[in-house]
Design the sequence.
């Protein structure tokens, strides 16, 4: 199984700003989310993380007794000048350009197509191992959406039709002739009403 975990809440998430390559830490809520996820995830046979601190800290807090491997292909999309800015920093024309053209590069950052290409290579390399083991990757919104598009065999333009919550889990079965998406945005032990451990 290829299990994709979005990192827990970071300070930027809590403030509602675009957070690409900037590296804010997890909040206390984010740390509790990661510890709660550990109770609901199978023990990984391999654990990978984006190089960004919020993902690495989440991976470490999952509590697995396997080393965390860093793979830069799982880092968040580069928002360029928009990094750290509120969504309102984009006017209507800028939003339309971004949503209508997956090759659009926002404010000197990175296109969705570029994210899809690097993540697809990573997924393809992990597929055989994930078919026989539990491969867990801790990453970010855009790379996880790219992995979902890889699993479904569709373009990255579907990214605008998805929403991922903090610490959400997505699962892709790579054991067959084609990848099969089993779960998206699974909050597991984080489901509403569950008390997170202090």
Sequence:
């Amino acid at each position: 199984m290829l299990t994709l975990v979005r990192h827990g809440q970071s300070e930027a998430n809590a403030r509602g700003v675009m957070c690409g390559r900037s590296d804010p830490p997890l909040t206390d809520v984010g740390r509790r989310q990661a510890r709660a996820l550990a109770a609901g995830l199978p023990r990984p046979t391999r654990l990978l993380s984006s190089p960004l601190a919020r993902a690495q800290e989440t991976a470490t807090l999952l509590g697995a007794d396997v080393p965390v491997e860093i793979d830069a292909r799982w880092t968040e999309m580069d928002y360029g000048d928009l990094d750290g800015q509120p969504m309102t920093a984009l006017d209507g024309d800028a939003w339309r350009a971004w949503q209508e053209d997956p090759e659009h590069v926002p404010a000197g950052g990175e296109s969705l197509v570029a994210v899809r290409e690097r993540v697809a290579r990573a997924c393809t390399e992990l597929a055989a191992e994930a078919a026989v083991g539990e491969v867990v990757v801790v990453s970010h919104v855009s790379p996880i959406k790219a992995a979902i598009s890889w699993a479904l065999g569709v373009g990255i333009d579907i990214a605008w039709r998805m929403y991922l919550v903090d610490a959400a889990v997505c699962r892709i079965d790579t054991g067959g002739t084609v990848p099969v998406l089993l779960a998206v945005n699974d909050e597991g032990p984080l489901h509403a009403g569950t008390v997170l451990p202090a």
The two ends are 30 Å apart (CA to CA).
